[in-house]
C-alpha cells in the first residue's frame, strides 16, 4: 500500500467483493467483541446521525457509516453546496433515499431526530463543533487531530465530561486489530522491555504532498467562505487554501497533524501512555514543495516519554512504506501501513559468537577464550531450534476504519466509554503541537502539565 491514506471511498469500492491476497501466514482473526457486536441492530436500536463535512475524509466516513447495521444518516451539512450533492449521491447509492442538507451545522444540533454527529471538517473547526454538539446533547465522532491549538483540548475534555457525552476521535489505530495484537504482545512482555518506538512514513507525489486540485467552479456563491475561515485571519476567497488547508497553519498542522497523529496514537495505545510526551525535539525543512505553504515537507521528531523514547520521521520527498516499530530487549514488533499486517521477531539478547574484543588478545589467550565460549554456548547438534517469529494479517475484508466507526456507534448505543476519548485524542494532538512548536521555535518543546502549556 502507498505510504498515505487512500481515500475511504476508493477503499470501499476497491475492497467491495474483492478478496485481499494473503500470504500463507496466520491470520489475525477478528476479536470476539467485534464479531458479537456486528449483529444486526433491532430497529429500535437505530442510531441516527448527522454528517458535518463531506470532503475527502467525510465522504468515506459517511459511506462507511451508512453501510453499518442499525446506523442511519438523517441530515448532512457542509459549507460547500457541491458536497450536498455528493452527500446525497452517496446516501441514495446505498439506501435509495436522500436527506436534507444545510450549510449550518447548528441545524443538525437542533434536530431532535439526531443522536450524534460525525465531524470531518478542517482542524481549525473541530473544537467549536465538538463543544457545541456536546452542549446540544449530541455524541460526537470527530476526525483527528482533535485540536488545532493547545488550549482547545481542555475545553473539549470539559465539555464531554460536563455533558456526559460520548466523544470519539477518528484516529483508527485505536480500533486496529494489528495494533491491538501489538499491545497484547508488549503487555505480555513478548519482546522484553520496550525502550524505543519508531514511526516512519514517506510520500513522493503531489497528492501525497497535499497538492489537491480545488473543485472546478468553486466560488463564494457555492461556498460560504467567510464561515469556512472560522476564527482564522480574514482573507479573500482562495480555492487553494480551501483544498490544501493542511499546508497552512491557520487551519492545519502540517505533517504532525495530518500524519504523526496516527503514529503517536499507535505509540500511546500499544505502550499504555496516558499523558502527552514530556519533551519533543524536531528538525526538518521545506525542500521540494515550495508552493507558499507554511509547513516543512520533511520532519523528524524525537520524543521523551517517562518509560521510553520515540522517534518519528516523515517526508513528502521520498516514498517509503509506513511502519511503526516497538523495539524491546527481547525482540521487535513492526506494524505496517495503517496496521494491515504486523510481524514479531524475537531476540535472546545474548552473544552469538565469541566477543570480537578478544581479537585484541594474544593468540593463546584468544584460543582459550574461544574454546571456553564454544563449550558453554554452542548448541548440541540435535538440540538446535529455529528462532521463533510470526506475521499477522488482517482477515479478508477487514478494515480498521470501519471497526473504529463501529466502536463509536456501539458506545452511543451502550454508553460504554469510547475507545478514543477526548483525553486520548488530546494527548496525541499535544504531541503534534509539540513537534511543530519545536520546529518553529528551534528549541525543545517541554510539556508543562501544571500550566497546560508547551514551553521551550
Ligand atoms: N482518520 C483519517 O485517516 C483521516 C484521513 C484524512 C483526513 N482526516 C481528517 O478529516 C478532516 C477533514 O479532512 P478532509 O481531507 O476531508 O478535508 P476536506 O477539505 O476535503 O473536507 C472538509 C469539508 O468540511 C467542510 N467544512 C469546513 N468547515 C465547515 C463548517 N464549519 N461546517 C460545515 N462544513 C464545514 C468543507 O466545506 C469541506 O467540504 C480533517 O480533520 C482531517 O485531518 C482524517
Main sheet: strands, sense, barrel? 10 strands, mixed
| Ligands (ions, cofactors included) | nicotinamide-adenine-dinucleotide
The fraction of residues in strands falls at 15-25%
Q: Note the total helix count.
A: 14
In terms of structural class, how would the helical and strand content be classed?
A: alpha/beta
Mean of pLDDT = 91
Question: How do the helices and strands follow one another from N- to C-terminus?
Answer: HHEHEHEHEHEHEHEHHHEEEEEEHEHHEE
Distance between the termini: 38 Å
Looking at the structure, what is the overall shape?
elongated
Describe the structure in your own words.
The protein is an alpha/beta fold. The protein has 14 helices and 16 strands. The chain has helices at 8-15, 32-37, 56-66, 82-95, 105-110, 126-135, 152-163, 177-187, 225-229, 239-243, 254-271, 363-377, 400-414, 422-441, and strands at residues 47-52, 71-77, 101-102, 116-119, 139-143, 167-170, 194-202, 279-285, 298-304, 309-315, 320-328, 331-336, 341-346, 389-393, 445-448, 453-455. The strands form 2 sheets. The chain has a 10-stranded mixed beta sheet, with helices on one face. The chain has a 6-stranded parallel beta sheet with strand order 3-2-1-4-5-6, sandwiched between helices. Strand 5 (139-143), helix 7 and strand 6 form a beta-alpha-beta unit. Helix 6 (126-135) packs parallel to helix 7 (152-163). The radius of gyration is 24 Å and the shape is elongated. Residues 1-43 have low confidence and may be disordered. Bound molecules: nicotinamide-adenine-dinucleotide. Nicotinamide-adenine-dinucleotide is lined by residues 5, 52-58, 77-80, 83, 105, 120-123, 125, 143-144, 170-172, 227-228, 245.
Amino acid at each position: 500500500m502507498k505510504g498515505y491514506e487512500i481515500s475511504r471511498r476508493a477503499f470501499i469500492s476497491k475492497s467491495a467483493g474483492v478478496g485481499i491476497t494473503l500470504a500463507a501466514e496466520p491470520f489475525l482473526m477478528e476479536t470476539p467483541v467485534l464479531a458479537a457486536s456486528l449483529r444486526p441492530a433491532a430497529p429500535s436500536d437505530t442510531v441516527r446521525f448527522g454528517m458535518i463535512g463531506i470532503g475527502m475524509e467525510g465522504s468515506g466516513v459517511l459511506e462507511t457509516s451508512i453501510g453499518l447495521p442499525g446506523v442511519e444518516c438523517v441530515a448532512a451539512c457542509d459549507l460547500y453546496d457541491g458536497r450536498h450533492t455528493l452527500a446525497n449521491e452517496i446516501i441514495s447509492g446505498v439506501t435509495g433515499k436522500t436527506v436534507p442538507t444545510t450549510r449550518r451545522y447548528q441545524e443538525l444540533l437542533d434536530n431532535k431526530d439526531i443522536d450524534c454527529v460525525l465531524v470531518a471538517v478542517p482542524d481549525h473547526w473541530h473544537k467549536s463543533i465538538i463543544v457545541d454538539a456536546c452542549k446540544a446533547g449530541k455524541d460526537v465522532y470527530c476526525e483527528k487531530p482533535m485540536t488545532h491549538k493547545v488550549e482547545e483540548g481542555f475545553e473539549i475534555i470539559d465539555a464531554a465530561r460536563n455533558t456526559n457525552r460520548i466523544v470519539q476521535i477518528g484516529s483508527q489505530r485505536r480500533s486496529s486489530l494489528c495494533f491491538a495484537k501489538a499491545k497484547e504482545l508488549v503487555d505480555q512482555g513478548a519482546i522484553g522491555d520496550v525502550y524505543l518506538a519508531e514511526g516512519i512514513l514517506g510520500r513522493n507525489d503531489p497528492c501525497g504532498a497535499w497538492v489537491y486540485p480545488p473543485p472546478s467552479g468553486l466560488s463564494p456563491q457555492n461556498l460560504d467562505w467567510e464561515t469556512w475561515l472560522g476564527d482564522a485571519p480574514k482573507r479573500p476567497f482562495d480555492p487553494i487554501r480551501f483544498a490544501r488547508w493542511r499546508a497552512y497553519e491557520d487551519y492545519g498542522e502540517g505533517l504532525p497533524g495530518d500524519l504523526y497523529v496516527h503514529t503517536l496514537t499507535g505509540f500511546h495505545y500499544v505502550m499504555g501512555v496516558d499523558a502527552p510526551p514530556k519533551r519533543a525535539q524536531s528538525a526538518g525543512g521545506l525542500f521540494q514543495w515550495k508552493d507558499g505553504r507554511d509547513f516543512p515537507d520533511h520532519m523528524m521528531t524525537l520524543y521523551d516519554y517517562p518509560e521510553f523514547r520515540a522517534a518519528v520521521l516523515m517526508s513528502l520527498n521520498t516514498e517509503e512504506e509506513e511502519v511503526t516499530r516497538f523495539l524491546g530487549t527481547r525482540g521487535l514488533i513492526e506494524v505496517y501501513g495503517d496496521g494491515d499486517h504486523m510481524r514479531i521477531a524475537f531476540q535472546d539478547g545474548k552473544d552469538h559468537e565469541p566477543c570480537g574484543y578478544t581479537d585484541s588478545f594474544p593468540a593463546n589467550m584468544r584460543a582459550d577464550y574461544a574454546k571456553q565460549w564454544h563449550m558453554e554456548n554452542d548448541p548440541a547438534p540435535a538440540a538446535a531450534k529455529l528462532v521463533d517469529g510470526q506475521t499477522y494479517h488482517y482477515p479478508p475484508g477487514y478494515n480498521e476504519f470501519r471497526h473504529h466507526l463501529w466502536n463509536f456507534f456501539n458506545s452511543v448505543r451502550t454508553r460504554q466509554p469510547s475507545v478514543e476519548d477526548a483525553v486520548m485524542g488530546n494527548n496525541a494532538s499535544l504531541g503534534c503541537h509539540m513537534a511543530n512548536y519545536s520546529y518553529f521555535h528551534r528549541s525543545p518543546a517541554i510539556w508543562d502539565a501544571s500550566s497546560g502549556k508547551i514551553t521551550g
